[in-house]
Amino acid sequence: MIKLKGMSDSMLRCVVPEELPSSEITASFGSIMEKGGVILPGAKVVLDFGARVLSEKTICSILSEFVWPSGVSVAAWITYDASSQEILKRAGLVTSEPTSEPGAGISSALVLHRSLRSGQRVEHRGDVIIAGHVNDGAEVLASGNITILGRLNGLVHAGYEGDENTTVVSRSMEALQVRIGGKIGSLDRDAEWWGKHVIVSVRDGVVLIEYWPTIKGELVVKEESA
User: Fold this and answer.
1) 100 in any annotated domain
2) Which residue, 57, 69, 129, 182, has fewest beta-carbon neighbours within 10 Å?
3) Which of 55, 66, 76, 59 is nearest to 32 (CA)?
4) pLDDT tens-digit series, residues 52-71
5) Residue 211 placed within a domain
């Protein structure tokens, strides 16, 4: 069953459970229209699909059976499946969390209580905190800082809009590459900090890795501009 939740800035969030069969999505949105028919017209909503894979057929069905008949304005289509994000972007649909206030340049921190698998991607204008693992083949892009409270195997890019004052923090650093702003740090699996708590930052134009909490600093073996 799709859940309708209130958000800040008078927006609504439609949470579509990942376990809900695709064949039942349209009917579930119909139920939302019946129960929330009074509040839906003119409302701004975020459609949250979690890590669900969205096909072009499913997206068209949601538009024709829910978005247009209900009169809502969709602020964002959220899915952590990279291929689905590409389909939505090609259609000109927003795939990142909306800013917390109209006209705000950066939204609030995004906190995800889940691990990311290969083929999943998170992109957010602000800080990102992952309370789980980022596995090989997964991606996290943030205009702000990135904190991984688990194992980092995948690709992360903090400050993707060019901010080199951002940081990447991981409880277990096991990634061969980290990007911060316009810098790329190539990491060494034989280093003593591999698999440890670390903070990665850019200092004086060089990518630096430090233990977290800071004990000592070590320069990344290879660093280059993106």
Assistant:
1) no
2) 57
3) 66
4) 999 999 999 999 999 999 99
5) yes
